[in-house]
User: What shape does this take?
Amino acid sequence: MSRDGKRQRTAEIAITPDLTIPKVFAQAVARYGDKVAMREKEFGVWRPITWTEYFERVKAIALGLVSLGLERGDKVALIGDNRPEGLWAEMATLCAGGVTVWIYQEALIDEVQYIVDHSDAKFIIGEGQEEVDKALAIQDRCPKLQRVIWDDPKGMRHYDEPILISLNEVMEVGRKLDQKDPHCFDELVRAGEGEDIALLFYTSGTTSAPKGALLTHTNMLRMGQNLMRVDPAYEDDNFVSFLPFAWIGEQMMSISCGIQAGFTLNFPEEPESSMEDLREVAPQSMFSSARLYEQMVRNVQVKYADSTALKRKLYEWGTNVGYALADCKFEKRKPSPWLQAQGWAANALVHRALRDHLGLARMRNAYTGGSMIGPDHFRFFHAIGVNIKQIYGQTEIAGISVVHRSDDIKLDTVGKPIPETEVKIAEDGEILSRSPAVFKGYYKNPEATTKTLKDGWLHSGDNGFIDDDGHLVFFDRTQDVMLLSDGRKFSPMFAESRLKFSPYIKDAWVIGHQKPFVTAVICIDYGVTGRWAESKGIAYTSYPELSQQPRVLELVQKAVEQVNKGLPESARVNRFVNLFKEFDADDDELTRTKKLRRGFLEQRYKDIVDALYGTASVVHIDTAITYEDGRTARIKTDLKIVNSQQ
Assistant: This one.
């Protein structure tokens, strides 16, 4: 806060051709010094790290990497949970003139090998034993790989392979170089240019092998600056870093916005504790996938179901008032004085406690991206006073090109382009974008680059249109748009998001392209549905058994029929099956950003799809599932096919 009590916003920087992320970082360090740059929760205590301490660690790692042979333009792969050390290593790589290549921490060995080999990474920096094991397993298949650097010593005592070195040793080597050549680090930072490649970021690969998008320092800085022109960030803001660093959305907030705004990053103790830690921090902004917000709603629905009759009545009244106010906001109608008064009471009695329970007590802007959030979920958050905004973008445009404005939110759109961004619709309905944040192309893939970058426009592969108010309406991935039996085009994602508003449904795959009717494969939420089953005295021992319980099938059937009421007749789900497990990225059913890989699902579950469009009432399953460590197991079970009532 400033002396007059107003929130302090960092002055906008001038992004010149020679400006780089490390140069902005150095400016931030000079400006903030002993201000807390980040916190990490360890053993239940938040450990603060100042900007000066952040700088000293980055400097030591950068010089250590140079001492080990890192040259300008070399690739450094990073893998691990969200921790300060990961961000130090990334910033150090950029300061040394290297290119950062992030890998999802749960990636299987083959995925790690593909990215490390394809990117020509010289070094891998991993968190601990698990990441080291993956790196050692692939080193013979990655001829450019020279060093594997680890940070967490747990389990590393008996590892003595020559390729290994600890991050502490790297920092010691770097400090020695700093003593020998005190100007080396500053010279490295000064040598960078805005058009240098900063990130080699691999796309989620919904239809093919991941492609490596080349993003420059200017791409990332301009995108962050233009987002904050829409939604200003402040020095005293807090942000919780829990999305994988390998997701461009996390880079968008932690790097692009973080070093320009100077807000504090907070790292949860473990990925599993993220939501509890979110509540402790109560950040002013957050970015996450639709799945996290869907899980939040399920948690509220479960809490509601477990409450007393009086609390349920109070909750119902409060949310109904909230929905009425949210609809006024969406439709730009002024609420009546009576509705406003009810809104104040509902906020005091219901909504404030709900926001606090979810960790959203101080939330100013909650962004969701990666895939469209369902209208039911979107409306729910606005009803309880959370300013959730849909964003649209992709890795190839540094994360974001379109976002809702706080005073102009429409339920069925993704908002308007951010400054310096143009969006238009091609004749075939494809969404095209142009901005200073558009990437330079795909690494080692000129054919894909030529296809994606044409006439100065980024071709997204997404289908949509611009409405009369200038809002972009995202329909679906072009290849995912279904042609229904009556010739109508329909987005399966829309029906799937509506189905997931049921607390008992965690995932849904809607099928129906050029089929006689629409069907669905449902994944129940094991925790929520299991609690419901126990409350009803239903015995079960496993996910497959619970999913096929007759009363569970009836429960899902009611949810399907409820959603069908709001769908066109040709888009209604006629038959469905509860799958024997959740969709899993380790089984290639989801991307690492949790998007359905529809083409793969059609191949893997061909027997289920055929049965849904046949006359059978049961489909027999005999298949393999893959665990994160690469182990496989066979599943043999029978799945019941349910007809929904029309």
Summary: The chain has a mean pLDDT of 93. The two ends are 58 Å apart (CA to CA). DSSP finds 21 helices and 29 strands in the chain.
